[in-house]
Amino acid sequence: MSEELAGRVALVTGGVRGIGLAAAEKLAAKGAKVWIGDLTSESDDAVAKALGSIGGGAAYVQLNVTEEQSWIDAIAKIEAADGRLDVLVNNAGIDGTGRIQDMSLELWRKVQAVNSDGAFLGVKHSFALMEKSGKDRKGGSSIINVSSIMGFVAFPESAAYCTSKGAIRLFTKACAVEFAAYGVPIRANSVHPGFVQTPLLDEGFERMVSRGVAEKAQDLKDQVAASTPVNRLADPDEIGDAVAFLATEASSYMTGSELVVDGGYISR
């Protein structure tokens, strides 16, 4: 365990599983106190398991990233407990696959609400606390928005997801240049994972199988692994390492950057 983030406080949304949990574990390993926010009830066994995995005095706040009051309450809880917030990881996300002509407006809006609106609300309502916390730290506080390679390239039946992740890519840059222009001690960077072995990936592929896109989910995994230069899917820990790097002072001169962790996929 290192002490690069000793005395710092982080919030990771969608932190009970997948990339969010991996990022929380990596931040805690660098000495941060980590709050995880998720829809799951605090009494759920998954929450206890995640907190135990993270360690380091990790805490939980129930958070619906699409609801403004939920964000207000979550940040107030963190401020009351710790008095600061140094790192915000906007990771919560859903997919929502389907052909454009068959997709309901309801599903389209749900994907944008979770993936895009959630990041906006997180930045908006954490701003004051992160600005205060960043004044005593080289590089200031750090916002890390988890986008995707689908913020760069498109895939069939993924229009809603691609749109939301492209929005996150540009929203991050808007945050970065605006904060810098006003001398606000907060950096903002985006992480763009490729195909990662997570429950979200499994669920998305299973839905595609149910629509007849493939016979089984493993076939789809094999296809995307074969189309990735390193010939495999990523482990969540590999994305967590990238998030943790952007949280530390080692990345203090980075803002508005796109950190692509995709096994070379978009380099082809």
UniProtKB/TrEMBL annotation:
UniProt GO molecular function: oxidoreductase activity, acting on the CH-OH group of donors, NAD or NADP as acceptor
Residue ranges of domain Ketoreductase in the record: 8-202
Family recorded in the similarity comment: Belongs to the short-chain dehydrogenases/reductases (SDR) family.
Protein name: Dehydrogenase
Organism field: Croceicoccus pelagius
